[in-house]
Design a protein that fits this description.
Pfam family, one: Omp85
CATH architecture: Beta Barrel
Radius of gyration: 22 Å
InterPro entries: Bac_surfAg_D15 (IPR000184)
Largest sheet: 12 strands, antiparallel
Keywords: Membrane
Subcellular location: Membrane
Strand content: over 45%
Distance between the termini: 53 Å
Helix content: under 10%
Protein name: Tp92
CATH topology: Porin
Shape: globular
Number of helices: 4
Number of strands: 14
Number of domains: 1
Length: about 325
């Protein structure tokens, strides 16, 4: 049937780590005393961070419809998600640097509505070797003005293109096949409503901003890249794929580039709470592409979606 309807239920418990709040009044986490020290630091080990537990329960519903014209499969989807979150940590002796973690020490409601549309012209959706894909997703977080503190709008746009370079039959059961894959994505997130102060500026440093996570975005970049968060994320990659066993495992060589940038002068996770000198030094590192390249193995079984990558990292500034 072209019409789909589904329901989701989630119950999770996680042990997480976050930077502790600083005591110098400079808008930086403990133990950093300057923006330069924070920018050049490789990060703190988990043993020096604040450990907290996060309990989260969610219920949601989604629906979708798809059409099958000759040139592509068109899908339109939408859904709602209702969550309740609570963090647990020793508030008498510890304060997190992340304001969202601090606020969620109390039971917090997080509700969202999302909608998406896509045009799929790939030969196979899971492991394509030719074709193209275009997708757009919009998410509204914070549906109840007085009940929720996080109100944001996020837009995710992505495009993919695949072309087969070689497909030569070596035996009756195996072909020598080379595929070139391209991806580009643009994400924009903006905050509104009770998320901001009376002056219109963001209230402190909070999680939920766009970030280079080092796994799906900016492969190989970890703690250093996570310091740079913002409201605009650009992500591009190129992959040369060699299926060793079609539908099971593939050897890949990738080139990945990601950049996060602050469109507004006061970003959600920017330096609004820091001094002006700190802001100027922070802006010098914003807008740089975090790049990586290297080989990897990609398991293409739908039941076992695992990627192993060996990444070499560098920046667009030549560092």
């Amino acid at each position: 049937s072209p019409l789909t309807v589904g329901f989701d239920f989630e119950l999770t418990h996680k042990n997480l780590f976050v930077y502790r709040a600083g005591s110098y009044g400079n808008g930086l986490p403990h133990p950093y005393t300057s923006r330069e020290q924070w920018a050049s630091s490789p990060g703190l080990a988990e043993s020096f961070r604040l450990k907290y537990s996060r309990f989260e329960s969610a219920i949601g519903a989604h629906t979708g419809y798809q059409w099958y014209p000759r040139y592509a499969v068109i899908r339109v989807n939408g859904g709602v998600d209702f969550r309740v979150v609570k963090n647990f940590y020793d508030e008498d002796n510890n304060q997190p640097f992340d304001q969202t973690v601090k606020e969620q020490l109390n039971w917090t409601s997080i509700n969202s509505f999302w909608t998406s549309v896509s045009f799929d012209g790939r030969d196979f959706a899971y492991d394509p070797s030719s074709g193209w894909f275009l997708g757009q997703r919009c998410t509204f977080n914070g549906l109840v003005p007085f009940l929720e503190k996080e109100h944001s709008f996020r837009s995710d746009t992505k495009a993919e293109f695949y072309v087969t370079l070689l497909n030569y039959p070596v035996s009756a059961v195996w072909n020598l096949k080379f595929v070139l894959a391209f991806y580009t994505g643009v994400s924009v997130q903006t905050y509104y409503g009770w998320r901001k102060s009376k002056t219109g500026k963001s209230n402190g440093v909070r999680s939920g901003a766009l970030v280079i996570d080092g796994v799906l975005v900016g492969r190989g970049w970890s703690e250093d890249a996570k310091k740079n968060t913002g409201d605009l994320l650009l992500h591009h990659w190129i992959e040369f794929r060699w299926p060793l066993a079609h539908g099971i495992v593939s050897f890949d060589f990738f080139f990945d580039a990601a950049m996060v940038y602050n469109i507004e002068s006061q970003s959600p996770n920017g330096s609004s709470s820091a001094s002006s000198s700190s802001s100027s030094s922070s802006s010098s590192t914003e807008g740089l592409y975090k790049m990586s390249y290297g080989p990897g193995l990609r398991f293409t079984l739908p039941q076992f979606p695992l990627k192993l990558a060996f990444a070499n990292t560098f920046t667009s500034a030549g560092g």
